[in-house]
Amino acid sequence: MDVCQEKILHHESVQKAVSNIPDMDALHDITSIFKALSDPNRLKIVIALAKCELCVCDLAAVCRSSDSAVSHQLRILRNLKIVRYRREGKVVYYRLDDHHVSTLINQTLEHVKE
């Protein structure tokens, strides 16, 4: 079994670890992002948007889903500041909110491929 055979507390290491943990609000925000990305359809949307800006119709084709289903997923992603949109006439285009989201997705993909 992978447990300590002897109970020894390494105070300096524990303090270092504790000081690295964000406050509860930040922890909640982080878990919300990971929960959102744990849905396969939302993850497909985010991975697609990591390559290029797409409209709702394009994303529906990528996800093989309806426009309304994709719009619902995009609303969740938008509320978490994972994606943003711009309107061009009657068409709404989506892209990732910033490079941090792209970095998170790319590093996770690299990790999975190892």
Task: Please provide a written account of the structure.
61% of the residues lie in helices and 12% in strands. With 114 residues, the chain is α+β, with helices and mostly antiparallel strands. Strands 1-3-2 form a 3-stranded antiparallel β-sheet. A hairpin with a 2-residue loop joins strand 2 (83-88) and strand 3 (91-96). Helix 4 crosses helix 5 (67-79).
Mean pLDDT: 95
Morphology: elongated
Strands of the widest sheet, in order across it, are 1-3-2
Structural class: alpha+beta
H-E string:
HHHEHHEEH
CA-atom Rg in angstroms: 19 Å
Per DSSP, the total helix count is 6
Which helices and strands appear, and what pairs or packs with what?
Blueprint: H1 11-20, H2 24-37, H3 40-49, E1 54-55, H4 56-63, H5 67-79, E2 83-88, E3 91-96, H6 99-113
Antiparallel strand pairs: 1-3, 2-3
Helix pairs in contact: 4-5
Which descriptors would you attach to this protein?
single chain; 114 residues; alpha+beta; three-stranded antiparallel β-sheet; 6 helices; 3 strands; 61% helix; 12% strand; elongated
Task: Briefly characterize the structure.
This protein is α+β, with helices and mostly antiparallel strands and 114 residues long. It is 61% helix and 12% strand.
